[in-house]
Every structure is written in structure tokens, then in C-alpha cells.
Amino acid sequence: MPNTVPATPTACFTKEQRLLTPAAFRDVFDAPERKLHQSHLMAFVRANTHNRPRVGMAITKRKVPTAVARNLIKRQIREHFRIKAFKIENKDIVFIVKKSIKDIDNKELKNQINNIFKKLEKK
What we know:
This protein has helices at about 20-30, 65-85, 105-120, and strands spanning about 35, 40-45, 55-60, 90-95. The protein is of the alpha+beta class. The chain has a four-stranded mixed β-sheet, sandwiched between helices. The chain contains three helices and four strands.
């Protein structure tokens, strides 16, 4: 049986793909190259010197009061990032919630996250 190479690289989410320190978040917030907007979400994007894209999330209690909802947003962002990371250049991406997500459903949330990642893939 011949060795076959998968069509897409293995999609995993490792610690090296996360923004972990306050300094890393501050660098992205202070001088973003791009800001990608959706109605409820926003992403700050900045090039990094690492060999891979990294993602961080700053989701506050004020905008998303319940831990269940905050964790849902984080899971959705991580999942989209995990699948699309190999298509994204070496960028640091920080997601924030612009306004309360009480009035949108899960499908719309996924759509907004997906739209941000599509914009990242283009450039």
C-alpha cells in the first residue's frame, strides 16, 4: 500500500497557536494592521514573527454575561481557527465582542466568525 499524504494538513489547536500573555494582546491592540468588523464581532490582526498564526479572545462579562455563552463563542472561534489555520499567514488575531450576542442565534454567530476568517484568507 503506497504512503498517501492527506490533502489538508492535520488540523489541531496547540498551545503555540494561542496568545497567552498580556503583552502579546497589548501588541495586537496597540498597533493592529487590520480590523475586521462584523455586526457583533471584531478581530484585530497583526503580523507576528512566529512560524504560525496565533489567536486570542478578549470576551468580557459586560458584553456576554453568562460563562456558558462566553465559552460557546470561544469554542466556535477556536474550531474555525483550527480548521483554517493552515490557510492563514503568520498573524496574531484577537477577537472581541462589539455588542451583546443575546439577539443572534448560533448559526449567525458561526457565520460572522466564518466571514472574518474568509477575509483573513484573502490577504
